[in-house]
From TrEMBL:
The keyword Repeat applies. SMART domains: WD40. This is Anaphase-promoting complex subunit 4 WD40 domain-containing protein. WD repeats lie at residues 140-161, 208-248. It comes from Brassica rapa subsp. trilocularis.
């Protein structure tokens, strides 16, 4: 809480910038939103079996309602649950995890697949991530088959397979330490999150036990803290440098059954979560209550009686003094919010 008035303070003037309506006539729930490393290119994927690529500067400040302003569009063979840009600088390549259990990498400029892995036995992949280590790119995927797999995309070889917790519970989230460390954070349907040392993917070095339902997301806030999200309706901030303890629990959003998205903006110390009442909730890591709440367009009421919900969220990481937040809905609509420090 704020030391002066005991009220959570929001240090950013965040406001609506533009909406990008779904060009599809059918179901088009957005399952993934990802900025490329430059922060200039935005990719989305989901139920529509398409990866849509946008240039951020062409979207800000205008309303879009068709495909005319999509930079490029890649059709995929299956529904997509996750997207992640490869961190190497050899080309513009994005990786995807799909409902058929396949990881596919696409050359965005050519719109063609350049790499494919099918190692999860046809079980749905919920999350993919990459890290760049000593000039080599490592990839990881988590699946309904209860395994995390790590590989080197250069040769397609399977490096490691691990079952966090030792069971068959679905793996919902994987993320490498974005600060260059050796950790891999894993969110699991067994109600726990796990932190593994990628140099020896055997037993976890930390077990984050505190949620009462599936852990859908695990994200690094910094080298020492991790944020987890769960269908128990809470987010938790964990200190993994001092006994893997819970520093703070965030509540306000609604989440009991769906993937609603979770993203951290490390420059600003902010966490954003979607919600099943079709609202976006922003939390400051210093306080457990939300500091900013915004309903997506077309919302009927706070209880989401039209059954639409926020299904994915993403912060742009590139700037320190300017923030950009993108939220995607179960109806396929994107909304972009921008702000400056107060």
């Amino acid at each position: 809480m704020d030391r002066d008035n005991n009220i959570p303070r929001f240090d950013w003037d965040l406001s609506f910038s533009t909406v990008v309506s779904s060009p599809s006539t059918g179901t088009d729930a957005i399952g993934a939103i990802e900025f490329d490393p430059s922060g200039e290119i935005l990719a989305t994927g989901g139920i529509a079996r398409k990866i849509r690529i946008y240039r951020l500067n062409s979207l800000l400040g205008t309303s879009r309602d068709d495909d005319d302003h999509v930079e490029s569009c890649i059709c995929t063979p299956a529904k997509l649950s996750s997207l992640k840009w490869r961190p190497d600088l050899t080309g513009r390549v994005i990786g995807s995890g799909d409902y058929d259990g396949v990881v596919t990498e696409y050359d965005v400029e050519k719109g063609v697949p350049v790499f494919e892995r099918d190692e999860h036995g046809g079980r749905k992949i919920w999350s993919v991530d990459y890290t760049l280590r000593n000039g080599s790119v490592l990839g990881a995927s988590g699946s309904d088959d209860g395994t995390v797999q790590m590989w080197d995309p250069r040769n397609g070889g399977l490096d490691e397979t691990v079952r966090p917790g030792g069971g068959a519970a679905a793996i919902c989230s994987v993320e490498f330490d974005p600060f260059g460390g050796n950790f891999l954070a894993v969110g699991c349907a067994d109600r726990n999150a796990y932190v593994h040392d990628i140099r020896r993917l055997v037993d976890p070095i930390f077990v984050l036990d505190g949620h009462t339902k599936t852990v859908t997301y695990a994200r690094f806030m910094d080298q020492h803290t991790i944020v987890t999200g769960s269908t128990d309706g809470s987010l938790k901030l964990w200190d993994i440098a001092n006994g893997q303890r819970v520093v703070r629990t965030f509540r306000g959003h609604v989440n009991s059954r769906n993937f609603v998205g979770l993203s951290v903006w490390r420059h600003g110390g902010l966490v954003v979560s979607g919600s099943e009442n079709n609202e976006v909730f922003v939390y400051d890591k210093r306080w457990g209550e939300p500091v900013w709440v915004r309903g997506l367009g077309g919302q009927t009421d706070r209880f989401g009686s039209d059954r639409r919900f926020v299904s994915s969220v993403c912060w742009r990481q590139a700037d320190e003094d300017w923030c950009t937040l993108v939220a995607g809905g179960s109806d396929g609509v994107l909304e972009i919010f921008s702000g400056i420090r107060n």
